[in-house]
Amino acid sequence: MEKIKVAIIGIGNCASSLIQGIHYYKGKNPEEAIGLMHWDIGGYNPSDIEIVAAIDIDRRKVGKDVSEAIFAKPNCTQVFCSEIPKMDVKVVMGQILDGVAPHMADHKDDYTFIIADKEENDHTKLVKILKDSGAEVLLNYLPVGSENATKFYAQCALDAGVAFINNMPVFIVSNPEWAAKFEEKGIPIVGDDIKAQIGATITHRTLANLFRERGVKLERTYQLNTGGNTDFLNMLSRSRLDSKKESKTEAVQSVLAERLDDENIHIGPSDYVTWQQDNKICFLRMEGKTFGDVPMNIELRLSVEDSPNSAGCVIDAIRCCKLALERGIGGQLKSISAYTMKHPPEQYTDDIAKEMVEDFIAGKRER
Fold it and tell me: With b meaning 16 or more CB within 10 Å and e meaning fewer, what string describes 68-103?
């Protein structure tokens, strides 16, 4: 099989886990490939993905080979594949715009950004970089709250003719105006806001769906999350959280039998705990009434390494994008978006979304 050529915006923990995974699964067979939702998608396995371009703004990454940059600070995710061969792909300087929260800029420690002193590449240069690299798919791993930067790179993808996977909560794929632009050009898009394989959102959705299917009335719920990576540090700026809270909350509301009033549902980042690093801890509580209006509640604590958890979904989204490109399908890919994203164009329960993805892989038309 030919390689799936991928460009990445933001060489942080998520990019590090994805690239480690591409090499980790190389040479393995399906029986020993633990941790994947799909080993084969349309004939492509994880090691058929090739990184051909990378964009960042941190001095410790810009100018370095991607194989080195993924282990540079402030990255702190678990290293499960340390032997990454030199890729001959250097990280180039991007556009900053609102991609760095003010409280994280030029703080001289391991956990914040140190902005590179190189000149920012403008739209024309970045489009040329994407075209010259041969990239087919562009991954957006910008920090939460990067509204203007995400729109800037979405336009770069459009102008370069590159498929766009939006892994963060700025609404591009679920925005009809943006979706129409990509559909008009025949370019596939997946988004918005990546879900984890087994993370806070999908666990919350699964339990909410269980309440509904078993006739239990959910009356109130919360989901509180803590972590120690740059994502959680970035989200200490509450002004950057509107779309994130909307994305996570709607992912749960969409599977309820009856929507909860705002005061009865609270979902979102809670706090930054430095020593947790890339480990994310979710505290979840659900209160409801069962037979005879008798009250019941569930409390759950979930602990996961955040970035590998999301990479397991992105690796499927990339390969579905490739199938869409091969089949001449443009615009929203609703099946893989519903399966892997918190705020897709259309919400489905996770069992239906999985069925839709299997149908898409098999070559059936999307619903």
Answer: ebbbbebbbbeeeeeebeebebebbbbbbbbbbbee
Two structure tokens written together for 242:
């509107």
The Cα–Cα gap between 278 and 261 comes to 32
**How many CA atoms does the CB half-sphere of 277 hold within 13 Å?**
10
- Cα distance between residue 283 and residue 269, in whole Å: 11
Q: What is the pLDDT of residue 112?
A: 78
Q: Backbone phi, then psi, for 335, in 5-degree steps?
A: -70, -55
In the structure encoding, which two tokens stand for residue 206, read together?
A: 């699964």
Residue in the block written with tokens 């009865």: 264
| pLDDT range class, residue 270, cuts 50, 70, 90 | confident
- DSSP string over 323-350: HHHHHT--EE-HHHHHHHBSS-SS---H
- Residues 50/315/34/349 CA torsion (nearest 10 deg): -170
Query: Partners of 269 in the beta sheet?
Result: 225
Q: How far apart are CA 312 and CA 314, in angstroms?
A: 6
Quick check: 181 pLDDT over 90?
A: yes
C-alpha distances in Å from residue 352, one per residue of 62, 195, 335? 42, 16, 9
Structure tokens at 185: 């050009």
